[in-house]
Amino acid sequence: MRFKIYTIIFAIFAMAIATTVFVVNKNLHFIQEELGKPIYNTRVKEFKTILEDKKAYLASFTKFLSSSNIVIDSYLKNDREKLINFIMPLYKNLHDSGLLEEIHFFKPPAKSFVNFANLKAFNMDVSKARADIVWVSTSFSPSVHFYICRLYPGLRATYPIKYKNKLLGSVSFGIHIKVFRELFKKLNAENVSIYLNDNELKESLLPEKYKYYEKLPSYKNWKVLGNVYNITLKPGRELQNGYIFSKIEIKDFFDKTMAYLIIRDNIFPFLTKIKYKALFLLCLEILSFILTFITMFLLFRWMLNQINEMNRILYYIKTYQFDKIPKKTEEKDELNVYKNNLIDVAQRIKAYINLLNSEIEEYSSKAYQDVLTKTLNRNFLEEKAHELFIKFEISKKPVGIIMLDIDDFKKVNDTYGHDVGDMVLIKLAETIKNDIRKEDLFIRYGGEEFLIILPNSNIENTYIVAEKIRKHIEDITLEIGQKHLKFTISLGISEIREGDSSIFDAIKRADINLYEAKRNGKNRVEI
Q1: Which domains are present in the chain?
Q2: Which of 20, 93, 295, 348 has its CA 20 to 30 A from that of 4?
C-alpha cells in the first residue's frame, strides 16, 4: 500500500513537472510578452522623466539668460565682448561637465550674435538652418524641442530676449542627443542605441560635421549610435531571442521622426531559471513564484518610488518650491546618483533665481526715484515689471494693487499755481508713505496718478489700506496764505490673479476701477 501511495505521489509530481515543462515551453512567447510589458513601461517612464528633467533644466537656464540685465544691455549696446565675458565662465563650466552642448545668441529673425561653440562665426543668417529661432522671433514664445542644426542633433530650449515689449533677439541652449544614451546606461540598461534619421542628418548638418555620423554603422536609412539591431523601427516593444527591445520615438521641432531610442533588456536568464525551477524544483514552485513575485514587486516598487521622488523634485523645480527639495543621499546605486544630480541642478537653479531676486532688491540704490515726491518712478516699473512678476509668482503669496488719482487736480493748478500743485503732490506722498509698509512699492505712475504694490496682501487687506489712505488724505489741510486748501483722492484696487501674464494685467484692472470711482462721485475706493 505504501509503495502504491509513493508511486501515485511520484506519478503526480512527475506529471506536474512534465505538464509544467510543456506549458512553459508552449507559452514561452506569452511569458516573454508579460515580462516585456513592465520593462517597456518602465523604460518609457524613465525616458519621460529624463526628458522632463532636461526640458526643465534647459528652459530654466534660457529663461534666466533671456531676462539677465547684462544680456539685455549687451544687446542694446551691440556689445559682443560684454556678453562673451559674462556667459563664458558659465558655458565652460557646464560644457566641461557635460551638462550642455551649446549656448547660442541670435538677433532677429535668425542672425548669429554670439555662438559659444564658435565665437568667430557671427552676423551669419541661419534662418534656413534654424527654423525654430525664426519661430521664436515671430511668435515671441519660448520652446523646448529636439532639433538637428548645422552642428549636432539634440534637445534645445529657445527663448525670446525682450526689452520694453520689444524683441531684441533670442537664445538657444542645447544638449546633444547622446546624453540620453549615457543617462540610460546609468539606469542599468544593458545596451542602449540611438537610431538617427540619415536624411535629416545630411540635410541639416554641415558637411564637416556630417563626416562623424557618416562613419557610424548604418541600418537601412538610419545612422546608429551604439549597437545595430535588426528590428522594426516603430514605437513600442519587440521580443527577440530572450531580449526585450524598448523602442521610443523622438520627434523634432517639425513633428518629424528624428530618431529612435532603443533599449535592449536581457530576460533570457530569467526564462531559463523558470524552466529549471519548473523541471527540477516542482515542490518549491509555488514558493518560488511567490518569492519571485515579492522580489519583483519590491524591485519595481523601489524603482517607481525612486522615479516618483525624482518627479517630485522636478515638480518642485518647476513650481519654484526649492525648500521642499530633499537633501542628497548616499549614492548606493545609479538611481541615487541621478537623483543627486537632479538635486545639484535644483540648487544651481535656486542660486541663479536668488541672484535674480537680489538684483531686484537693489532697485532702491539705482536711479528709479521721482525727484519731486521721492517715490519710485514710472521708469522703475517699466524696467523691473517682468522681474517683479517672477518674484511674486515664485512667492505664491497674494499681491494687492492700488491705483489712485488726485480729484480735480487741474483745478488746484489753475487756481493756486503749479507750485501749490507740487506741494499737494509732496504732502500726498509723505502721508501715504506713513500708511504703507517698508516692503510696499510706491510709484508715481504719471502726473497726479500713483500706484502702490502690496506684496503678501489679499484683496480684503488691500481695501483696508486703500480706505485708510483715502481718509488720511481727506483730513489734510494745506495753509496757502490766508486760505485753507483741502483735496481728496479716488482709488481703484485689484490683485494679481492666476493666469495673469504680467503685472500690468492687474494694474489695468485697478486703473479701470479708479475711473469707476471717478464716475461714482470721487473720494472713494472701488474694487
Answers
A1: 1-273 (3.30.450.20), 281-354 (no CATH), 366-526 (3.30.70.270)
A2: 20
